[in-house]
Amino acid sequence: HSSQADPIEGGLRLDSRPGWQKGGDSGQAIVAGKPDESRLMRAVEYTDEDLAMPPDGVMAKSDIALIRQWISRGAPDPRTTARPNTTAHQIDWSQAKTHWAFQPLVRPQQPPVRHVDWPRNAVDRFVLARLESRQLHPVDPATPRALIRRLSLDLTGLPPTPYDLELFLADTRPGAWSRLVDRLLASPAYGQRWGRHWLDVVRYADDQLRTEFYYRPLPHAWRYRDWVVGAFNDDLPYDQFVVHQLAGDLLEEPLRSDGVIAVGLLALGMMYQDDGGTPDGVAIARSETLDDRVDTVTRGFLALTVSCARCHDHKFDPIPTSDYYSLAGIFNNTGYVDELLLATPKVAADYEASQAHIASLSKQLETAKRSDDKSQLPRLSASLDDAFQAASLAFPRAHSVRDTGSADMRIAIRGNLRKPGPVAPRRFLQALAGRSPPSFKTGSGRLELARSIADPRNPLTARVLVNRIWQHHFGRGLVETASNFGTMGEPPTHPQLLDWLAWRLIETGWSIKQLHRDILLSATYQLSSASTPAHLQTDPDNRLVWRMPRLRLDIEAWRDSMLAVSGTLDDTIGGPAVDSLLVESRRTIYFAVHRDVQTESDKLLRLFDFPNPRIGSGGRTPTTIPQQQLFALNSPFVIERARQLASRASAGTASTDQRIARVVRIVLGRRALPREVTLGTDFLGEHPDRSTDGQLSTWQQYCQVLLGSNEFLFRP
């Protein structure tokens, strides 16, 4: 508690008279002449476990007596009366507001360019202007075959079928590309692909963390997953998409019916538990649960790291601790609930009975945790798990939330809920709403928060969404740190383009599909992935977007593509989570996501860079490790796909050349090159279907090679 400490614990300085007279975060520490009213005495006498100091053991009784005597005498202190020479971190609001992300959204003028014949729309003009400022020019456009494969993988996560490919190549009428874009945007597979992108952002999972004595399945999580997929397919305006997920249960019918499911964004978050039953454990679990919601909402919708202000004012962004607890207070008045979707009297009665049984088991489990005899814990934990599973099968429910109060929350000193500080009124962030934003008064404040985030005057919401869409089309956002638009994040490479697209999103009624069209119809999106030495020397990372990067498929698109080209993809839409990625043939989005690695499916997902569902993801970082290629070589899943592909590609063919041509067209979406045909026939020999000891035939091996090839694994 001196100027030498970093940080100064509790904000309390004891090395000068002004320091202890001022007090710390929790208030006055010494009341001169009144030792029994002095927090310092309670701390050194260990009469308050939250204040006990020093933490490593009580002081000698004689020293404690001296401190009591000193305070009783009026706490005389001959030390300097000069104010301590250290100052607390202060937010410079005038400087903070100059950061680009907090600037009002203004529609920028399209810039002039020299090569006026190249741009197809406004996106191209902004890109070309940046390139020309560096004496660069775009590369040539991609081939039609590469373009349809690129677009199909981007919008649906599946390669084009040979029929789709030939249909597009044969369409020579004006507007063929635009029609292809619209056709793929109308496909149910679009929502499956882009819904999965959103599920990354909101840390979707089908269960909670598994601990020794606690496990909470989320058997109805799939309803939220399906709602997200449907919202993308229906092109639900993004502002409504925001409001539904934060406060859908508070909307009027008929919107509330979907909203009860949509607030799964909050209900499916981490729900921390205290296994020990101590007051500190309970407080820590509660604070971690609140932090999960604050962090998911603010990074997901606003790309701000508000959680950094949990224990102190944000060190880099204009987010004081009071703002963190303004938002935490909203979620502190929001309770988890299993919402019954078909509440007939009998169903409701049965549901209440099942919930009472679950509550009883939960209480028994908590009691057992606190007892000395832990022998009943495994049995009770298993019984509770069974009760959850039984209820999930018997009743149509959604994991949802509802308001539980409307009280403001006190700031937790140093992030400790057991050390309350001043009240933080529930309201929006000051960096976005001004220094004195109005308090939220209706219920928990969630609906007011949702509308504040979705307000077109909010400079962040549209920018963040536009950046996420661009990120998935180009492999990198216009702002590379997609979930951090603060001062420690990367600045935008094309700030005017970002703002133009954000303005365009709002102008078109927050239509995400129209945002796709604005990007996909550009010449920029249709560039080839070729490069030149001159471009690489000037802009080696392609930050100015002079070409389209080749992108490795994520595990969902790669696995689903293997199923598609082998003719075995089950394209059933929606429903409860499926268990085994290695056995079932449904799209990968429909498989259970666990917050810890429990199954072979979990291991496969993590092997191919699937994000940790304990926290929201701002984007996946692809890795290249030997185990990935070993999977392509040895996995029974890949081997079975190779067998099925071999059967599909050989049906009705009369020669080896025809087989090779057909399988290359199915898998890679192009004609086989003469050199490939020659190599293939040499490899296959005269008996391509012969196999021994149950091993793959030469023809099946050839098909497996194509499934594991870079050309199949990468988007052109």
Question: What's a quick, concise take on this entry?
Answer:
By secondary structure, the protein is mainly α. It has 31 helices and six strands. The strands form three sheets. Strands 1-2 form a two-stranded antiparallel sheet. A two-stranded antiparallel ribbon has the order 3-4.
CA-based gyration radius: 30 Å
What is the percentage of strand-forming residues? Answer: under 5%
Major sheet attributes: 2 strands, antiparallel
Mean pLDDT: 91
Give the termini distance in whole angstroms: 60 Å
Fraction of helical residues? 40-55%
Q: How many helices in DSSP terms?
A: 31
Number of strands: 6
**Residue ranges: pLDDT <50 for 5 or more in a row?**
none
Structural class: mainly alpha
| Major beta sheet, strand line-up | 1-2
> Rough shape?
globular
Description:
By secondary structure, the protein is mostly helical. It has 31 helices and six strands. It has helices spanning 17-22, 39-44, 61-72, 93-96, 122-133, 144-156, 162-170, 176-185, 188-201, 221-233, 238-247, 255-262, 264-267, 279-302, 321-332, 345-370, 377-394, 430-433, 446-454, 461-474, 495-507, 512-520, 533-538, 555-565, 600-607, 626-634, 636-650, 656-668, 674-684, 698-707, 710-713, and strands at 334-340, 397-403, 409-412, 420-424, 551-552, 714-715. The strands form three sheets. It has a two-stranded antiparallel ribbon. Strand 3 and strand 4 form a beta hairpin. The longest helix has 26 residues, at 345-370. The radius of gyration is 30 Å and the shape is globular. The two termini are 60 Å apart. The model has no long low-confidence stretch (mean pLDDT 91).
